[in-house]
């Protein structure tokens, strides 16, 4: 349903854009008509002014004749035809005022233009959870690896945005047509959801390890323990996949439909965005799945992604309003970022070790960077970098940015901090 909602809204945005274009053209045409009318009226006004001036001159001339001292030499008496002749009043036309002819349309006409969602007349198929297991080996950390981790941690404290972005690698995710959501585990395992809700596990070398068919997977995240948890919209549950690939039900959300999930890097809490009819809320659970906080939001916000920043801020996307909304730990809104002079279509969000907020802008085909306080910093990636339908972002432990797009199963990795 998420894909259908996105398609409906994208169609509506296109229609709105066309309406705005036609309206602007009609207003421009009306302005041109007004200018032409004003020019014509000004010409007629000048014609009358000239004629009035002519009459005033003739009036003075007649008064001069009346004051003539000698009757037999008075031109008005002896040459009356020429001296009494007055030019006719100039003829002018009444301008034709423009009229507006309203268009003939109805709600049904607009519905036909936009299309509609329908349920195909097909027999529903039973869903199954199926694992294809393969042998995998996880290496235990050596002293050298531990030292490297310490060096990485020290380096993170001095990292900043680079003046240029470098593509460091590209990998292909098997058996998917597009990449809607990415999670990368510490062991190098990569989890991806496609537009059909199919959850696939692979590794950073692009080697297919296992495929999991689950009920409408919408979002997933890797916990501090290294397990993957994902939202199941149909069954209104949050499920857990352990390192040995066992799937268990973790949290039941009752009447609420879980759509987006994030595991905190600060304390391991789990943030879940849920909706019920037109009610929405963010629920915080601890590591064991105990509910510890509810943040209710007024109105319906169409959320694609949720993330937590290094200061504990909760970052969410409001697709309908075209905004990045940031709340503090208590759920109070700190700020909202949007573009007032152009269309802004945020589709994915994540944060990094420096508190930057990274956002996919689908309409402008860019990935932008905001500061921790909502200030626009830069366009990190653009169409020149191959950004077309960016729909997923993830910053790994090496501070590299993974970018997935809905129109391809290739994921590009960029180095953007130095």
UniProtKB/TrEMBL annotation:
Basic and acidic residues: bias regions: 136-156
InterPro entries cross-referenced by the UniProt entry: 6-blade_b-propeller_TolB-like, NHL_repeat, TRIM-NHL_E3_ligases
Chain residue ranges for the region called Disordered: 136-159
Any single biological process term in GO: protein polyubiquitination
Keyword set, alphabetical order: Repeat
A GO molecular-function annotation: ubiquitin protein ligase activity
Superkingdom: Eukaryota
Protein name stated in the entry: Tripartite motif-containing protein 2
